[in-house]
């Protein structure tokens, strides 16, 4: 079959494109400018005829996707601004929500062969910042970030602005499906991933240009930029990028995934957990907080992944494996000795 992947040059989408091609799918990937597709075509040159790159300059423009949805069986929507330092919240909300709604509209109007729409959502749409530790599942929605952004606008935290953009976009997607349930010929799946780390395939000239989540990892684990308190107390849940790609493909292939949200996650971490593994493997890397005791770590946010286990059945890449592969790539790049 043929599938569409938006924002194909992004960190997550790159792995998704790779796995799709490996499994024999034909992929039409969108990028904001043709120049951003050059490295994709070069990376996947062994799959000529299977990969097509098209330019969609402004995803939020109505009708932007009308042509590209034609002839595809499924859509993976990944393009969205991912960083925690927006000024005006609309910088993220407009493309996130407008891109999602516009793509759904195009799929309904012109994507006659589309059977499934898979939205690359985020655990940002699920968990709330709160004092007491909690475990969240697919019934939970992070509306507190939306509220904060509505109340504070530019003064809301960067994390809240990003979380709000993802929550509003996913909510808009489910609302679209509900509003058009008699007209759409496809179902919707939303995959919620927590912090995503892992080796990258996209073109990154220098570490400072890594995507947002891997840059956080680089700063904390390799550069030692975080203080002891941060390393021992801050963290979340995480997943390796290759597992995110796998989850997306399985959610296309497994009939039962249709119409569902699905949280995928490898488990909790504190930044010092990654630092410990990295430092143990290579003593030249920072030791970080040497008094950290993992058994005393309090994890405020946990995700219940039993639904994904049942519906998708993924065996997650571990902290050790993910760390080893990231460091191997950094070495290969000459970024660390
Ligand atoms: P990247 O920053 O690597 O990729 C983002 C993609 O979206 C790029 O193709 C980028 O294009 C495109 N994009 C960014 N802003 C816009 C915009 N205003 N209009 C159109 N396209 C835009 O991010 P990730 O791969 O990390 O994230 C991909 C998806 O996964 C996102 O939807 C994100 O919310 C979600 N996600 C990411 C997590 C993470 O930890 N990384 C965790 C959970 C979910 P360009 O290169 O032109 O800027």
| CATH structural class | Alpha Beta
Poorly predicted runs of 5 or more residues: none
Count of helical stretches: 11
Strand order of the largest sheet: 3-2-1-4-5-7-10
From the coordinates shown, what is the CATH architecture? Answer: 3-Layer(aba) Sandwich
| Separation, N- and C-terminal Cα atoms | 43 Å
Shape: globular
Question: Mean pLDDT, rounded to whole units?
Answer: 97
By helix and strand content, what is the structural category?
A: alpha/beta
Describe the structure.
This protein has helices at 11-22, 38-43, 90-110, 144-152, 158-179, 212-222, 228-233, 241-253, 271-281, 306-311, 319-332, and strands at 2-5, 26-31, 51-55, 74-77, 116-120, 134-136, 187-192, 195-197, 235-240, 261-263, 267-270, 301-303. The chain is α/β, with parallel strands linked by helices and 337 residues long. The strands form 3 sheets. It has a 7-stranded parallel β-sheet, sandwiched between helices. It has a 3-stranded mixed β-sheet with strand order 8-9-11. Helix 4 (144-152) packs across helix 5, helix 6 (212-222) crosses helix 9 and helix 9 (271-281) crosses helix 11 (319-332). It has a single domain (2-202, 240-265, 304-315), classed as Rossmann fold (3-Layer(aba) Sandwich). The chain contains 11 helices and 12 strands. Belongs to the NAD(P)-dependent epimerase/dehydratase family. Dihydroflavonol-4-reductase subfamily. It comes from Hermanssonia centrifuga. One of its GO terms (molecular function) is oxidoreductase activity, acting on the CH-OH group of donors, NAD or NADP as acceptor. This is NAD-dependent epimerase/dehydratase domain-containing protein.
